[in-house]
UniProtKB/TrEMBL annotation:
Protein known as: SDR family oxidoreductase
PROSITE patterns: ADH_SHORT
UniProt xrefs under Pfam families: adh_short
Domain of life (superkingdom): Bacteria
Similarity comment: Belongs to the short-chain dehydrogenases/reductases (SDR) family.
InterPro entries linked to this entry: NAD(P)-bd_dom_sf (IPR036291), Sc_DH/Rdtase_CS (IPR020904), SDR_fam (IPR002347)
Listed GO CC annotations: membrane
An annotated Gene Ontology molecular function: oxidoreductase activity
UniProt-listed SUPFAM superfamilies: NAD(P)-binding Rossmann-fold domains
Length: 217
C-alpha cells in the first residue's frame, strides 16, 4: 500500500459508449467511480442536476476527476430544428456540465483534480445540419476555457477532448439520420478515446493538457 487516498471520479454518460468504457476502466484500476446515468438524474433538468450535485457534494471531501462525457445529438437544418431540440442540446451538452462543475469545484480543488470535457470535432467546425449540436459544443469549449483560466491558481486542471466520429450508439444514430450504412470498423474505437482521457488523468503534476484532438487515421 502506498498510503495514497482512494481516487474518486464522477463520470456522466456512464451508461453507454465512451462514458461506460471510461467508468469500467477506472473501476478496474481500483478507483471509486460514481456513474451518473440517466436513471440517477436527467441532464435535461437543470434544477434536478443542481439538486443532485448539492447532495453529492455534501458528503464529498475530494474529487479527483469530473468527467463530462454525456451528450445528445440530432441533425437537421436550422429551418427544421424545433425549440425542444435546441433546448435539449443546450441543457444536456452545456448547462448540465456547467452546473455540475460549479457545485463540485470545492472537492476538485481539495484534490488538485482534473475536469475533462468530452467535446467533438463539431465543437471546432460547424457543418450543415449540425447547428444545435455544434453550437452546444462550441459553448462547451468556452466553458472549459473560462474554467481553465479561473482555476489554474487553485490547482484544478481542465482539459477538452475533441474526438471525431467514434464507434458508439451515438454514431450509429448519426448514420441513421444521415441515411448512411454504419460500419463501426471505420471509426475510432471508444477504447482509444478512453486511453487518451486516462493519459490526461495520469499526467504528472508538472504539466497539463488543455486540449486534445483525436481523429481517425
Ligand atoms: N460517437 C461519436 O462519434 C462522438 C464524436 C465526438 C464526440 N462525441 C461525444 O462523446 C460523448 C459520449 O458519447 P458516445 O459517443 O459515447 O455516445 P453514447 O453512447 O450515446 O453516450 C451518450 C451518453 O449520454 C447520456 N445522455 C444523453 N442524454 C442524457 C440525459 N438527458 N440525461 C442523462 N444522460 C444522458 C446517454 O444516456 P442514455 O443512453 O440514457 O441516453 C449516454 O449514456 C458525447 O459528449 C458526444 O457528444 C461522440
Amino acid at each position: 500500500m502506498t498510503g495514497q487516498p482512494e481516487r474518486t471520479h464522477l463520470v456522466t454518460g456512464a451508461g453507454s459508449g465512451i462514458g461506460e468504457e471510461l467508468a469500467d476502466r477506472l473501476a478496474e484500476r481500483g478507483d471509486r467511480v460514481v456513474r451518473l446515468t440517466r436513471d440517477v438524474v436527467d441532464l435535461e433538468d437543470a434544477v434536478a442536476v443542481a439538486r443532485w450535485a448539492t447532495d453529492f457534494a455534501d458528503d464529498l471531501e475530494r474529487l479527483d476527476s469530473l468527467l463530462h462525457v454525456a451528450g445528445t445529438v440530432d441533425l437537421g437544418t436550422v429551418a427544421e430544428l424545433d425549440l425542444d431540440v435546441w433546448q435539449r442540446h443546450l441543457d444536456v451538452n452545456l448547462t448540465a456540465p456547467a452546473v455540475l462543475t460549479s457545485h463540485l469545484l470545492p472537492a476538485l480543488r481539495a484534490a488538485g483534480g482534473t475536469v475533462v470535457f468530452v467535446n467533438s470535432s463539431a465543437g471546432l467546425v460547424a457543418n450543415a445540419q449540425w447547428s444545435a449540436y455544434a453550437a452546444s459544443k462550441f459553448g462547451l469549449r468556452a466553458l472549459a476555457d473560462s474554467l481553465r483560466a479561473e482555476e489554474a491558481g487553485n490547482g484544478v486542471r481542465v482539459t477538452t477532448v475533441f474526438p471525431s466520429r467514434t464507434a458508439t450508439p451515438m454514431q450509429e444514430k448519426v448514420h441513421e439520420q444521415e441515411g448512411r450504412t454504419y460500419d463501426a470498423s471505420r471509426w475510432i474505437r471508444p477504447a482509444t478515446v478512453v486511453d487518451s482521457i486516462l493519459h490526461v488523468l495520469d499526467l504528472p503534476a508538472d504539466a497539463t493538457i488543455p486540449e486534445l484532438v483525436i481523429r481517425p487515421r
